[in-house]
Amino acid sequence: MTAPFRSPRPARRRAPRPAPRRRPPGKRWGLRIGAAASVLVLAASGIGHAMVTGVESGLGRVDAFKGMSNRPGGGDGLNFLVVGTDGRDKLTAAEKQRYHLGGAPCHCTDTLMLVHLSADRDRASVISLPRDSYAEVPAHTDAVTGAPRAAHAIKLNAAYAEGGPSLTVRTVEHMTGVHIDHYLEVDFTSFMRSVDAVGGVEICTVRPLRDSYTGLALPVGKSQLNGGQALQYVRSRHIDGSADLGRMQRQQRFLAALIHKITSSGVLMNPIRFRDVADTMLRSVRADSGFGAGDLVDLGQAMRGFSPSSSEFTSVPLASTAQTVPGVGSTVRWDPVQAPKLFQAIREDKPLAAHRDGKGPRGRVVDVPPGQVQVQVDNGSGRAGAGTSVAGELHATGFATTGSAPSTSPLGTVPRTVLAYDPRWDRSARSLAVALPGAELHPVTGQGPVMQVTVGRDHRTVQRVRAEEPLPKPGGIAAITGDQAVCP
Predict the structure, then answer these.
(1) CA distances (Å), origin 280, targets 34, 92, 97, 276, 349
(2) pLDDT over threshold 60, residue 393
(3) Any idea of the CA torsion for 274, 278, 281, 287, to the nearest 10 degrees?
(4) What are φ and ψ of residue 25, in 5° steps?
(5) Residues β-bridged to residue 216
(6) Taking Cα atoms as reference points, which of 141, 112, 71 lies closest to residue 332?
(7) Residue 298 CA to chain centroid, in angstroms?
(8) Top-ranked range on mean pLDDT: pick from 44-48, 185-189, 443-447
(9) Are the C-beta atoms of residues 232 and 214 closer than 8 Å to each other?
(10) Measuring CA to CA, which residue among 336, 331, 340, 334 is closest to residue 154?
């Protein structure tokens, strides 16, 4: 593994940290996606110091930066490491059965996210770190045995079990070159209670989502999820071949939807309602000992206008193949070119996604990314240039139109636009049909992967579409803004 980036800037000076508050034995709490929302919601509320102090006093404390040295230099903005541990032991037997949470907790980080708040507090960037990422942890003392351990290879999510929050922070900083300012964690129980406290969260999907391992069963369209259902949604990784990558994308979409629910439902404008929600969300959260009421108030004053469009989401770009490491198992490697570019953008406080101004259509979400749908256009409208115009509009919205110029249809003039497709590519055909409202779908066995569009006299417009999850552009990073992730 290449040596981590080290900024030429001096490391930030941190104020002395108070001793961590101890909890009774057995009360170890972890953080999941709700913690990221907790930070952003509290920051966006602009509430007073007294109320924040009351909420902040319920936080568990952990010294996540104990004994750390040789750290990356601090850049602009503020960086949080948000982790989620498997806290199913806090759930009732009935909840475990209802939401398919049998078995023992893994005592590892089930979710890891790096959250960057820009220096001007106008943007929040959320980067998912795959839990099976190949990592090299520095020398440390094993949290379980107390024995010293030399530096060695490991999966990223196992760093927590070996050395707790401190080793997790050290490992992430080593891999990313990003200085972590604050550490937060929450468990399954807190996540479920937080979702229920805001009255559930609305999720949209362009295809049915089913996972027998978690019990998830969502239809096409909008679904209102309670806490338990939301936990099923963000845990599912057996829906399709995307596995953990798809799971991270759903976690990001859920976080965007949760932020949208809180910022649009009036919770932030009602001090009593906000206090109840914030108290529920933070009841099980552990944070580093330097994260206090003053931080929350300062952020709140700067982020009163925060909304889903202010957030952006991405995952660490990965190499094309997984790698099996002896004694560790199957791991994923970060892309040696694109991953450093991503973390450089974070260090330099640069946006990861193109942020829309809110003026113009968002584009309908489709199942298959338009760039993966091949299209040939013919003109059957009887209007000169209509085929060329439609081909250009389809290409502009992302479809892979063929290089040959549209010709006059051999069918002559047709009353309605026709989309001929091979049934083996029916998902691609349905995605293309969204861009051509009113088109007739004609299955043609053996046609192959290219969709054949014949523009009819009824054609009026090409509807803008976009993929549910973005594909990386050559030399770029795949990122989506929060307003693209929530239901229209």
Answers:
(1) 10, 18, 23, 6, 32
(2) yes
(3) 160
(4) -55, 140
(5) 211
(6) 112
(7) 26
(8) 443-447
(9) yes
(10) 331
Structure tokens at 369: 């990314």
Contact 37, 313 (CB under 8 A): no
Could you read off the pLDDT of 252-309 as tens digits, one per residue? 888 888 878 877 776 666 667 766 776 776 666 788 888 876 666 555 554 456 677 7
Task: Note the pLDDT tens digit of each residue in 227-263.
Answer: 888 888 888 888 876 667 778 888 888 888 887 887 7
Cβ atoms within 10 A of the Cβ of 82, count? 28
Of the candidates 112, 95, 96, the one whose C-alpha atom is nearest the C-alpha of residue 30 is 112
Query: Burial of 147 by CB count in 10 Å (0-12 exposed, 13-18 middle, 19+ buried)?
Result: exposed
176-200 b/e (C-beta count within 10 Å ≥ 16 → b): bbbbbbbbbbbbbbbbbbbbebbeb
* Two tokens, residue 443: 């299955």
pLDDT at 444 over 90: yes
CA atoms within 13 A on the CB side of 143: 13
